[in-house]
Amino acid sequence: MTTIRPGKLLLTLTSFWSAYGSYHFDWNETHIYNPDWPAHAKFHNAQTMSTGAALGLVGLYALWGRRTPWTRGRLQVSTAAASLYWITQLSAVGYPGTALFDRPRSGEATPPRMRGPQTVIAGVALALNALAYGLERRRT
């Protein structure tokens, strides 16, 4: 019987969240169905959703899709795949004209550029991946 270790469980959760999360938060009127967004902005939103799904699925495959022994190489691939979506999300705030969310239509203050739920979620995912890698690295 295979024991599911904490590190693999954490990487499974963050890989799944990478694959699912952007669809959960972006498949709505604030993003992909936003009438104020030009078609090319929606194209890049769709690209981001697909990238998250692809990276999450690669991470899950590296974790569970092979019948080969659990190795350091598989751990590194699964950790990288589970982390890249979150790393690129954090890097996006460094580009000109970006914001974590749009200004409210009511004319309220400009939203913060570096603080928001995305940075917290990405930070938690990356911290969990680092913890998972540390737990599993000792076993490989």
Task: Characterise the protein shown here.
With 140 residues, this protein is mostly helical. It has one domain (6-102, 110-137). It is 63% helix and 0% strand. The protein has 4 helices and no strands. The protein has helices at residues 6-26, 39-64, 72-91, 117-137. The longest helix is centred in the middle third of the chain and has 26 residues, at 39-64. The chain is elongated, with a radius of gyration of 17 Å. The two termini are 19 Å apart. The mean pLDDT is 89.
Average of pLDDT: 89
The number of distinct β-strands equals: 0
Number of helices: 4
Counting helices, strands and paired strands, the structural category is: mainly alpha
- What count of structural domains? 1
Distance between the termini: 19 Å
Report the biggest beta sheet as strand number plus sense, adding barrel if it closes.
none
Low-confidence region ranges:
none
Work out the radius of gyration: 17 Å
Taken as a percent bin, the fraction of beta residues is: under 5%
Helicity range of the residues? 55-70%
Run of helices and strands: HHHH
Tell me the overall shape: elongated
Features of this protein?
elongated; mainly alpha; 63% helix; 140 residues
Write the layout of secondary structure elements.
Layout: H1 6-26, H2 39-64, H3 72-91, H4 117-137
Helix pairs in contact: 1-2, 1-3, 1-4, 2-3, 3-4
Task: Provide a brief overview of the structure.
The longest helix has 26 residues, at 39-64. This protein has one domain (6-102, 110-137).
